[in-house]
Amino acid sequence: MSKLELLWNPDFSAEYGRNIVDLINATVADGGMLGFIEPLDEDTARQFLSALIQKIAKGETHALYGSENGEPVFFVLMNLSGMPNCRHSAELAKGVVSPRFRGQGLVQAAFKALISKARTLQIEQFVLDVRANSRAHQVWQYFGFKTWGVLEDYARINGQKHAGHYMAQSVESLAERMAYTQEESTC
């Protein structure tokens, strides 16, 4: 029987860090767009993890890590705004689901944990950006995120321009969509 374990801000300096790099690399190799054209080499991975650890320590970012029976299955960042007039919004970034575990309800579990954390932090709105017409773009749309702007020159891959969508959804709208109540708690 499988057991999903959700952790906020685990120690990414060792095993958890290696696991999220492996998740990112598996997703990039599978055609996922996470801001990386190819899997992270050792130096890039070290830089990514160092920056992540610093942002968590400063309280700028919350990282949700999911594993099932000890195997890493997803990872997502919730970046907080440092601007006083924007503290009601948080950016969702680097949403990664292991290719082996897609379609098994992990996105819903992650959203419920994000909603719970957002409510605790008095975050009222999620924002994100995503490459147009990607798998991730379709997932965000499916869960009710709406485009509020498009940047035609969002990303460049091998000299080719790709558009990107800037999307948003209120935390409570997402909670309604997930049929997630105040009383529920996931982690």
Q: Could you explain how this protein is built, in words?
A:
- The chain has 187 residues and is an alpha+beta fold.
- The protein has one domain (4-177): Gcn5-related N-acetyltransferase (GNAT) (Aminopeptidase, 3-Layer(aba) Sandwich).
- It has helices at residues 15-29, 42-57, 106-120, 135-142, 171-177; strands at residues 4-8, 61-68, 71-80, 89-97, 125-131, 146-157, 160-170.
- The protein is globular.
- The chain has 5 helices and 7 strands; from the N terminus they run βααβββαβαββα.
- Helix 3 (106-120) runs antiparallel to helix 5 (171-177).
- The longest helix has 16 residues, at 42-57.
- The chain has a 7-stranded mixed sheet with strand order 1-2-3-4-5-7-6, with helices on both faces.
- Helices cover 33% and strands 33% of the residues.
- A hairpin with an 8-residue loop joins strand 3 (71-80) and strand 4.
Q: Could you tell me the number of beta strands? A: 7
SS summary, helix count = 5
The CATH superfamily title: Gcn5-related N-acetyltransferase (GNAT)
- Main beta sheet strand tally, sense and closure: 7 strands, mixed
Topology record:
Blueprint: E1 4-8, H1 15-29, H2 42-57, E2 61-68, E3 71-80, E4 89-97, H3 106-120, E5 125-131, H4 135-142, E6 146-157, E7 160-170, H5 171-177
Organism: Iodobacter fluviatilis
Protein name: Acetyltransferase (GNAT) family protein
Domain N-acetyltransferase: 21-172
